[in-house]
Amino acid sequence: MPFGRQKLVAYVIEFIEHTDLEIQKIKSITKVIDQEPLMELNHFNFIKWSAQYYQHPIGEVFNACLPSLITKGEAAELAPELYWKLTDEGKIAEPKSNAVKQITLLSLAKQHQAITAPLLKEHQYTPGDLKPLMNKGWIEACQKQLNTDSISVNLLPSPFEVNKEQHQALAQIFSKKEQFQPFLLDGVTSSGKTEVYLRAIAQQLEAGKQVLLLVPEIGLTPQTVQRFQQRFIANIAMLHSGMTDKQRLNEWLKAKQGLTSIVIGTRSALFTPFKNLGLIVIDEEHDLSFKQQEGFRYSARDLALVRAQNLNIPIIMGSATPSMESQFNVETGRFERLTLSRRAGNAKPPHSKIFDVRQRSLQEGISKPLKEHIESHIAKGQQCLVFLNRRGYAPSILCHDCGWLAECNRCDRNMTYHQQLKRLHCHHCDRQVFLPKQCPSCQSEQLLPIGLGTERLQEVLSKLFPSKTVIRVDRDSTRRKDSMQNIVEQIKAGEADIIVGTQMLAKGHHFPNLTLVAVIDIDGCLFSADYRATERTAQLLTQVAGRAGRGETKGEIVIQSHHPDHPLLVNLFTQNYQQLSQQMLEERKAANLPPYSAQVLVRADANVISKPMAFLQDMANILNQYSQLSVFGPYPAPMMKRAGKMRAQLLLQADDKKSIQQILNAALPLVEKQKSANSVRWSIDVDPQEVF
Ligand code: ADP
Ligand code: ZN
Ligand code: ZN
Predict the structure, then answer these.
(1) CA 343 to chain centre
(2) Is 226 close to ligand 1, i.e. is its CB under 6 Å away?
(3) Does the C-beta of 193 come closer than 6 Å to ligand 1?
(4) Distance separating alpha carbons of residues 259 and 494, to the nearest angstrom
(5) To test the ligand 1 pocket, which listed residue (166, 194, 343, 544) has its Cβ within 8 A of the most ligand atoms?
(6) Residue 348: partners with Cβ closer than 8 Å, 6 or more residues away
(7) Whose CA is nearest to atom 4 of ligand 1?
(8) 186 touches ligand 1 (CB under 6 Å)
(9) H or E segment at 277?
(10) Residue 156: what pLDDT?
(11) What count of other Cβ atoms lies within 10 Å of the Cβ of residue 149?
């Protein structure tokens, strides 16, 4: 479409018969890119509904939901898949004896009916290497016919029988296989949830249906993905960040045309179109990564429910630590709970202890009993996970002479010291500077790292256990491609005694020889202004604890704390997550907090705080006219300054999501017209998960 002086890619979403605009003002479409609609009506309506619900511009929502090549104007056409085969001439060809490459490729072609791109890659060749052979007429290129008839799905048998609880869960799922029914698969870590997914998926594949599996982060769950590949001989599309735009578009089109049986991906995979979707599975449904925290701020978990309902298909949400929302949905009868209460196979639940570190001397953050515990486990040849959810060397740098602190000048936060890079790094705005040699305020050279990050913890533990291998798993140590995979294999092969890790290691991994989980510092998570912090901490600790003792040997979890009597810590280990979450739900109910009410957070920012405050005040004045709505604020954001912007918030609450939607639909056009709106950037977060 012509747009001002530019030409932009646009989506036609509606036709109208009449308009009051003058005819000269109407422009015609320059070029129609696709000859067929990009999606079926049902999917289109789903995306439109999402845009409406999250109060986000429809064009941006389409851009977020479609493969990027489409948004750039590429036609939605499946690239033909090529393969190569030997010609009759090729069968009797006699290449020169010094043409080594040609000889090997010819013999490869003789061994295989079809040479495919993956086969070439496996032998370290590219399609370009075939050129000389094609020029001689020995090999010809052919196009693979892709159609749904050629789809074959083969299911390999499971290595074991399901246990009673798994059997019951599956019976429930099977009884609702062709209707909308959300299931909460509430199973402790290692209870065999994945096995339930696999069998539920198998049933749908056998019926010729497609399946969508959403996972928190593909790189972190390679083992789950591997298990899928081992169980199904089928077209499985894994949508991961390492794909090219072209590959992404092709996978999107293949799913749409029914050429793919299983799509595995992170939150944005939810918007994949399908020809015949029969089931949605969400693994680790409580995970925060299902909520997009910027731009189009949607919750893939919540939208998956809407999609399943539109398509009238079942949806399984699994977790060892279900979210409050899902527990609430069970309570109101919307979800059906399927419980797996015991670890599958032989694994037993871990034993837990809290170490009171008040007034105890800590050796760089580590108490004596903790050290002894680590010692006793590694002495037996077992592995320990030492958990600290803070990467870098130290969360701050302090001048010993004048008290200067290395703060980010663009955010209200300290800068983290990364020793390997010799840099200060702000984890909030990504600003990086070299560590100064002298204090910028008094020129002293006494700059001390304060506090403990994973980098420093690794150093401390290597000093305490010099003969042992200590490895670190955090975002910094796994930045390179495949490094996570390599580390996981290293741990599994027993080439590490102590693993220092952040929450990256909290989920999905199965290390049979890991018997001790030590939590170094959880105190910071126990006290927070955000009411969701309790839920998150309980989930995190339960998930981390779940890494211990997944094999034959019983596991143990120990936690150091200055607040050993904190109800969260005490309850978590005297009760289980299920009981604790019942209490948390009751607290939410008493305080009328979500999921017992609905919230919307409005954020605004500008170069000075008065601007967003003024805009949000104007907005509050408009919204205060609606008696069903409680308006809190405006107030400066908990982190007022971030990336150089001054930020403020307005919190809206109503009894239910519907009334909040109606009010927003009625009031937002007026809000947008406020003069104060022109001097701020602002956004709406429906069902917010974080208040920062
Ligand atoms: P979760 O997904 O709940 O963490 P998994 O499905 O990964 O649990 O199962 C944990 C381990 O127990 C895996 O090694 C799996 O192969 C095994 N397992 C699952 N179900 C059974 C079963 N019925 N009998 C024996 N082993 C099982
Ligand atoms: Zn100083
Ligand atoms: Zn910063």
Answers:
(1) 25
(2) no
(3) yes
(4) 40
(5) 194
(6) 549, 554, 555
(7) 190
(8) no
(9) strand 277-283
(10) 79
(11) 7
Whole-number Å distance between alpha carbons of 480 and 484? 8
Total residues found in the chain within this entry? 692
User: Strand runs (DSSP E) across 620-670, as ranges?
Assistant: 630-642, 645-654
Average pLDDT over residues 216-224: 67
- The pLDDT tens digits for 436-459 are 999 999 999 999 999 999 999 999
For ligand 1, atom 25, which residue shows the shortest CA distance?
Answer: 345
- Take residue 674 and report the two structure tokens written for it: 């406020």
Contact criterion met (CB below 8 Å) for 287 and 542: no
Question: Distance from the CA of 405 to the center of ligand 2, in angstroms?
Answer: 8
Give, as one character, the DSSP assignment of residue 384.
E
Of 184-188, 429-433, 563-567, 655-659, the least confident? 563-567
479, 480, 484, 487: CA torsion to nearest 10: -110
Q: What's phi and psi for 246, nearest 5 deg?
A: -65, -45
Q: Which residues are placed with Cβ below 5 angstroms of ligand 3, an ion?
A: 408, 410-411, 426, 428-429, 431
Cα 552 to its chain centre, rounded Å, is 30
Q: Which two tokens stand for residue 222?
A: 């390679």
The candidate with the shortest Cα–Cα distance to 145, out of 187, 103, 83, is 83
* Confidence (pTM): 0.89
Residue 189 CA, closest ligand 1 atom number: 4
Q: Of the bound ligands, which one is closest to the alpha carbon of residue 402? A: 2
Q: Which ligand is nearest to the CA of 194?
A: 1
Q: Looking at ligand 1, which atom is closest to the CA of residue 224?
A: 7
Cis upstream peptide for 595 (omega within 30°): yes
Reduced to 3 states (helix: H, G, I; strand: E, B; else coil), residue 238 is strand
- Would you say residue 275 has pLDDT above 90? yes
| pLDDT digit string, tens, across residues 397-441 | 999 999 999 999 999 999 999 998 899 999 999 999 999 999 999
Contact 133, 102 (CB under 8 A): yes
